[in-house]
Structure formats: structure tokens, C-alpha cells
From TrEMBL:
Residues 1-22 form the signal peptide. It comes from Pseudomonas eucalypticola. It holds the Pfam family HbpS-like. Keywords: Signal. This is Heme-binding protein.
Amino acid sequence: MKITLPFAALTFAALLPALASAQTAAVVNQPNVTTAAALQLADRATHMAAAQHMNICIAVTDADGHLLAFTRMQGAYAGCVEASIAKATSAARFAINTITFYDLARKENLAIGTIPGILPAVAGVVLKHDGAVVGAVGVSGATDLTEQKLAEDVAATFN
């Protein structure tokens, strides 16, 4: 059987929609917090912290743990910069609040902190939209309880 070029082109053109739908079926859109919303959350956090006379660092990441917004308040310790980012990153990448890792490390004496990316600390809180993790906030620069409460309060203002 001899296939002519026009016939082959028509056959290929007819298959294109099927191929395209097969390819898009293998791709998933991941919901993420927007940059605008991340900036608003960082701003809210600084206002909440200032009202409590706290000087903190706040980091907001997308669902993959990549930084979208960051604020270091005047007077916040330099070491809190990386800590707030690490808290948000850990919460987002594992889709779990970091206080869970903290409690596991304390109560069960697990070496959970040796697993790459897991940070057993307070104040890394996931952001959810319609049940899906879309990002996280990380707070550092105060006591454990006040950091955790502030991170939870900021996350609660999200959508």
C-alpha cells in the first residue's frame, strides 16, 4: 500500500486533537497563593506583630515552598531571616504545619530533623484554599508560643 503525502498529512492532522488531549491529561494545574496575596499576608503579619510589640521576620511561600514575600521588621534578629523562610518552606513542601514535626521530635525523640527539608520548629503554617495547600507562612523572632499563634492568626486571615 502506497501512502501519499497528502493522505499522511490528513491522517496526522486528524490525530492531533487526540494527541493533545492525551498530553494535557498528564499535566495537573497546582493551585498556588498569588504574589499579591502573599504580600498582603506579610503586611498583615507585620501589623499584627507591631500591635503586640514584636519584631519578627515573616516569609510567605507558594505550595512548592518557593519564596513569594518576605518582611524583616526593624529590630528583628538577623538569624530570623533564614529561620522564617525555612519554616514556611518546610510547611509548604510537606503540606503540614511544622509544629507537628516539632512535637514528634520532642515527644518521640525521633531524628526527624535529619530528613532533608523537614524543620522541627514552631510557626510554619500551611495556607489552604478549598482543602488544597496553596502555600505557607513562616514566622521567626519571638517566643515559640507567640510565633505559633501569630503564624496561625495570619494563616486564618487567608481567603
